[in-house]
Every structure is written in structure tokens, then in C-alpha cells.
Amino acid sequence: MSSRRPQKPRPAAAKQLESLTQLMGHAEDVKTLMEEFAEGLSSVNLVLKQEIDAPNRQSNIDSAIQHSEILESKVQDATDKLALMNEALETEWQSRYDLEEQLAAVILDEAAARHASLHDPLTGLPNRSLFENRLTLGLAQAKRYDRALAVMFLDLNEFKQINDVYGHDVGDMVLQTIADRLKETTRQADTVSRLGGDEFVYLLAEFADLRDVLRVAQKIIQAIQVPCQLAQGVLVVQASIGIAIYPKHGDSAQALLKSADHAMFKAKRSKSSYAFAG
Ligand SMILES: Nc1nc2c(ncn2[C@@H]2O[C@H](COP(=O)(O)OP(=O)(O)OP(=O)(O)O)[C@@H](O)[C@H]2O)c(=O)[nH]1
Fold this sequence. Notes:
Elements: H1 10-51, H2 57-118, H3 128-145, E1 149-156, H4 159-166, H5 168-184, E2 191-196, E3 199-204, H6 210-225, E4 228-230, E5 233-235, E6 239-246, H7 253-269, E7 274-276
Parallel strand pairs: 6-7
Antiparallel strand pairs: 1-3, 1-6, 2-3, 4-5
Helix pairs in contact: 1-2, 4-5
């Protein structure tokens, strides 16, 4: 799991704001120059109009030309400033684009880190932490609406042998196959999680009565027993399930998990596929 803290884009944003403020200053300069230019041009036009009947024609023309040259240089100055502004604006756009990309990457990183902190890397199933959150939430709802809730603790039988005989990689593949089947048998309101090793837990938030819970347990048992077709051969895996019901077998997340775990051992000892707590 990555623990890298995402970079905050704040200093870059402050810099961008400063540059934009400078740009506004430039824009004001250019606006003033343009206003001066328009004013100057109309005064030159006025001089040229008056020139038609003027007694000192030559000196008036000289002064108008001089005035016009000054204006030309001001226009050149404004044009240069505009070019600078364009350049600065392009830089700002590029920097805005970079910041947006940076921000998108930070958001993706955060989402990936959050997902990794709540899921099992081998199977992609919710991990213990996410399961406990959902169980606590489910319990709060069950208490509020006076409903029952079931926790099923599931442990594969003789899984160690698979590792020992076929190797750890094959063991991993079996765990992934079982996890995929468990996902398929889980309804949207329910949660299945891998606690670690060959242990999985189920949270059943909605069911009418115990027969419903048993039906789910049997569905899980059957799904697990479907032979795993691997390059190394065909493997049949079996599981033992312990079932605890709120409020009968516990009224906290820890108490229910503990009761379901004990029931799973009871099932294992009696070689049954499942057993209820108590
Ligand atoms: N391949 C693989 N094996 C794992 C992983 N995590 C734990 N294990 C192994 O899973 C096995 C779990 O064995 P246990 O549940 O104790 O024993 P078991 O053989 O299933 O026996 P019973 O539960 O009594 O039927 C151990 O050998 C662990 O080393 C994993 O991520 N991958």
C-alpha cells in the first residue's frame, strides 16, 4: 500500500494568481496607451483639417508630423507590450493545464491509495477494516429498525495441503477463484471479505428468516465445491461455515465475529459444512 502524501498544488496556484495580477497591470497600461493614441490621432486629424486654410501651413505640417511620430512610437510600444502579454498569457494557460493535470493525478492517487487501504491485494475483496466498518454500520441499522443481521465465518478445509502439494502460486490461484465465486454469490446489500489466509467473512444485511441464511450458506458451499480447473489438474475445495445472528449471538461487531468464528470451528470439528453459534 502506498503511503505517499499527495502534493498540494497551493503554492503554484498562488504564483499563478500573482502572474495574473501582473497581467492585469499590463492590460491597464495597454488600455491607457490605446486611449492616448486615439486622442492623439483625432488631434492630428484636426490639425490636418485646419491645415487647408492655415496661414502657417509648413510649420503646422512639421508639428503634425512630429506629433504623429511620437504617436507611432507609442503605438509600437503598445504593440510590444501586447506581444509580451500574449506570451505571458500562453505561459499562464500552460501552467493552468499543468496544474489541472497534476490535480487529476493527485485525485487518482488518493482514490487508488484509499482502495488499496480497504481491499485485499490478492483477491480484490474488501479487507477486514472495510468489513468491520460495514458490519458496524449494518449493526446500527439493524438496531435502529429492529432487524436481524447474520455474519458467516468461512474457512477452507485443508488448504495448507494445496500449498504443500502444488505450491504457493497454485494456492493463490485457488484463493482468487474462490473469491470470484464468492463475489458472484453476494447480493448488493451484502458484503464478502477476505480476512486473511483462507478465511472469508460474509455479512448478510437483509433476510426474511433463518431459512434464508441457510440458503445463502448452502449456495456458498456449492459454489466453492465446483472443481477448480487448473493447469496442474482439477482441485476440489471445501469449506466450513460458522453462522452468528444479531442479536442472538452478539450485539457488537467483535462479538458477532467471535461467535461466527467459534461456530466455524464447531462445523470443522463435526465435519459439517456449517454450524450456528451457541
Ligand atoms: N497460497 C496462499 N496461502 C496462504 C496465504 N495466506 C495464508 N496461506 C496459507 O493458508 C494455509 C491456511 O491453513 P489453515 O487454515 O491453518 O489450515 P488448513 O490446511 O486449511 O486446515 P483446516 O482449516 O483445519 O482445514 C496456511 O498454510 C497458510 O500458510 C496466501 O495469501 N496465499
